[in-house]
Amino acid sequence: MEEAHALLRWKTSLQNHNNGSLLSSWTLNNVTKTSPCAWVGIHCNRGGRVNSINLTSIGLKGMLHDFSFSSFPHLAYLDLWHNQLYGNIPPQIGNISRLKYLDLSSNLFFGTIPPEIGHLSYLKTLQLFENQLNGSIPYEIGRLSSLNYLALYSNYLEDLIPPSLGNLSNLDTLHLYDNSLSDSIPSEFGNLRSLSMLSLGYNKFSGSIPHSLGNLTNLATLYLHNNSLFDSIPSELGNLRSLSMLSLGYNKLSGSIPHSLGNLTNLATLYLYENSLSGSIPSEFGNLRSLSMLNLGYNKLNGIIPHSLGNLTNLATLYIHNNSLSGSIPSEIGNLRSLSNLGLSGNKLSGSIPPSLGYLSNLATLYLYSNSLFDSIPSELGNLRSLSMLSLGYNKLSGSIPHSLGNLTNLATLDLYDNSLSGSIPSEFGNLRSLSTLSLGYNKLSGSIPHSLGNLTNLDALYLYDNSLSGSIPGEIGNLRSISNLALNNNKLSGSIPQSLGNLSNLVILYLYNNSLFDSIPSELGNLRSLSMLSFAYNKLSGSIPHSLGVLDLSSNHIVGEIPTELGKLNFLIKLILAQNQLSGQLSPKLGSLAQLEHLDLSSNRLSNSIPKSFGNLVKLHYLNLSNNQFSRGIPIKLEELIHLSELDLSHNFLREAIPSQICIMQSLENLNLSHNSLVGLIPSCFEKMHGLLRIDISYNELQGPIPNSIAFRDAPIEALQGNKGLCGDVKGLPSCKTLKSNKQALRKIWVVVVFPLLGIVALLISLIGLFFKFQRRNNDLQTQQSSPGNTRGLLSVLTFEGKIVYEEIIRATNDFDDEHCIGKGGQGSVYKAELASGEIVAVKKFHSPLPGEMTFQQEFLNEVKALTEIRHRNIVKFYGFCSHVRHS
């Protein structure tokens, strides 16, 4: 009665106990009365007491906290595998004193393993795998002397393995893999003489492999891979004559491979890959006649491949890739008729490919790339009808490609990249209907591209670049509807680009650059909505640019006209290179909509007018090159928004005005080239705060004054500064600023002695002329007083003699010099556009207040007057006059 009520209480605690189909037989009625023995999952002994609970994989969801373990003194078997039970494993589980089998695996239990499990002295099987248990393994488990099966894998257990587990002399299987166990493997494991399975992989074990493991003569599987074990492999492992699987891969083992491993004649699998093993491959491996898998890849093995490996007639997989093996490939490898995978890539193998490999009729993958193999490709490889992967790239193979490779109808990947193969591409390649990747780049292939390649409808990538292929691109390439990568660049292809390429709707990369293609770019390419990388550079193409692109490189062609405004709609464009064409006209502000753009190169064209302010919206830009064009006006202040820009080249244009101080906000800038323009004024002193700026070139402008005290300017060669009017500073080839200062003081004396008296005379004349005009105005009739203010003579009169009126008019027209009316800023001041009440439009230069140590105000004035008189702009008329006011001094 107590057992039945205990089970019902636990059922009630389950979250899904109201599910009618779940444990529906668990109820007390006239049939069951007080006994649960007929309930699903419950078994009783002859005395009617529950001795087995088996509720595997029925969707239980809840905890064990309400399970009364003490109510089941006769329970020997408890299996709750594969449910959704969670929470801690209650310590009361240690009260089931007769328990022999406990399986709580594949649930959601968390917390630590209760040490009370160590009280279950009759326990033979303990399975807690695939939970979320953490903490360390309780040393009390070492007291379970009857235990023969312990599985704690796929949890979050950590710390070291308790040496007490070495007391489990009856243990047959120990699974601890896929945890976070650390420290060294206990040498006490050498006491587990009954052990047939030891699995400790995917942990954090360090130290060396215990030599004592050589005592485990019944061991069939030793699984230690994916740890951090180091030192050499103990030769004592050669004593494990029952071993069928030895996996030591993905560790840090070093030293040579013990020859004693050649004694393991029952070994079927040997994994030693991804270590730092050195020395040669033991010839004794030829004794391992049961071996089906041998993987020694990614080590530091050297010497030759032992000919004795040809004895391993049961071998299905042989991987010795990425070592430093030398010599030739033994012809005896052709005896391995069971071989399905052969990987010898990434070594220093030389010589020719043995024709005997053509006997490996079961071979599915053949990797020989990245060696120094030479001579021709054996035609016998055409017999490998099961082959799906053939990779011979990065070698020194020569001669023509065997036509027999066209027989490999199961081939998915054919890689002959980077060799010295010559001759034409076999038309038989059109038979390879399963092919998804064809890589023939970097060879010496000639002739035309076979039209039969259009049959390869499963092809995803076609790489024929860097050869000497000629003729036109076959229109049949347009049949390759699955292709995503097409690279035909660096050949001698001619003719026009086939319109059929517009059918390749999955195309992501199209490289046709450096050929002799001509005619216009087909408008059908605009259908390629998946295209993200396109390069037609170095051809003879003409016409307009297609729209749907992500990366566009059309440099070094003959493209003419304006850049289409539609480019501003390419929302995913990252790189735009249109350099070295014949593009002209003004840049569209819509290019500022390319929010993802990181690289923009429009250099060496005929682009003109101003640089769009909208370029300041290209906030992801790292590289901007507008050099060798015909841009005029000033550098847009909005470029300050390009805070990620590392390289800016505006050289060889017609830019004028001063360098805006806002450029100093671009703290990521490393390279700045403003040379060969007409920039004026001082170099902003804030350049001294641009600590990331490494290289500067401001040569051949009209800049003056001291150079900033920063690394870029101090380390600049004189060639990067020459060709300006009056730069000074501590750079070889420039005059010292002290010398310039003394010259200025001399000029100041001349100004005082000569100019001031002259100004007095001029002032007297102006006063007399003013009295004369005042007298004349009194005699003018009303018509004369209302004469048109748009008349140039009248404007000159107003500006010259009615300074107060004009000043108030300028304040009104510029809204007290509001930035809205600013059309440029320089080192000495700002220029404003003012529309007077008369409708006349003038430019007003407002000077900054002179600071001590700067050039004299008079010199600034003369320079700025000269600059203003030379400006040619449809909104600016000639220079008329100036005024000074304390409000703006």
Automatic annotation (TrEMBL):
<dbReference type="InterPro" id="IPR011009">
    <property type="entry name" value="Kinase-like_dom_sf"/>
</dbReference>
<keyword id="KW-1003">Cell membrane</keyword>
<keyword id="KW-0418">Kinase</keyword>
<dbReference type="InterPro" id="IPR013210">
    <property type="entry name" value="LRR_N_plant-typ"/>
</dbReference>
<dbReference type="GO" id="GO:0099402">
    <property type="term" value="P:plant organ development"/>
</dbReference>
<dbReference type="GO" id="GO:0004674">
    <property type="term" value="F:protein serine/threonine kinase activity"/>
</dbReference>
<feature type="transmembrane region" description="Helical">
    <location>
        <begin position="750"/>
        <end position="773"/>
    </location>
</feature>
<keyword id="KW-0325">Glycoprotein</keyword>
<keyword id="KW-0808">Transferase</keyword>
<keyword id="KW-0675">Receptor</keyword>
<keyword id="KW-0677">Repeat</keyword>
<dbReference type="Pfam" id="PF13855">
    <property type="entry name" value="LRR_8"/>
</dbReference>
<dbReference type="Pfam" id="PF00069">
    <property type="entry name" value="Pkinase"/>
</dbReference>
<keyword id="KW-0547">Nucleotide-binding</keyword>
<dbReference type="Pfam" id="PF08263">
    <property type="entry name" value="LRRNT_2"/>
</dbReference>
<dbReference type="GO" id="GO:0009755">
    <property type="term" value="P:hormone-mediated signaling pathway"/>
</dbReference>
<keyword id="KW-0597">Phosphoprotein</keyword>
<dbReference type="InterPro" id="IPR000719">
    <property type="entry name" value="Prot_kinase_dom"/>
</dbReference>
<dbReference type="InterPro" id="IPR001611">
    <property type="entry name" value="Leu-rich_rpt"/>
</dbReference>
<comment type="similarity">
    <text>Belongs to the RLP family.</text>
</comment>
<dbReference type="GO" id="GO:0009653">
    <property type="term" value="P:anatomical structure morphogenesis"/>
</dbReference>
<keyword id="KW-0732">Signal</keyword>
<dbReference type="GO" id="GO:0038023">
    <property type="term" value="F:signaling receptor activity"/>
</dbReference>
<dbReference type="Pfam" id="PF23598">
    <property type="entry name" value="LRR_14"/>
</dbReference>
<keyword id="KW-0812">Transmembrane</keyword>
<keyword id="KW-0723">Serine/threonine-protein kinase</keyword>
<dbReference type="GO" id="GO:0005886">
    <property type="term" value="C:plasma membrane"/>
</dbReference>
<dbReference type="InterPro" id="IPR003591">
    <property type="entry name" value="Leu-rich_rpt_typical-subtyp"/>
</dbReference>
<keyword id="KW-0433">Leucine-rich repeat</keyword>
<dbReference type="GO" id="GO:0005524">
    <property type="term" value="F:ATP binding"/>
</dbReference>
<dbReference type="InterPro" id="IPR055414">
    <property type="entry name" value="LRR_R13L4/SHOC2-like"/>
</dbReference>
<dbReference type="InterPro" id="IPR032675">
    <property type="entry name" value="LRR_dom_sf"/>
</dbReference>
<keyword id="KW-0472">Membrane</keyword>
<feature type="domain" description="Protein kinase">
    <location>
        <begin position="817"/>
        <end position="889"/>
    </location>
</feature>
<protein>
    <recommendedName>
        <fullName>non-specific serine/threonine protein kinase</fullName>
        <ecNumber>2.7.11.1</ecNumber>
    </recommendedName>
</protein>
<dbReference type="Pfam" id="PF00560">
    <property type="entry name" value="LRR_1"/>
</dbReference>
<keyword id="KW-0067">ATP-binding</keyword>
<keyword id="KW-1133">Transmembrane helix</keyword>
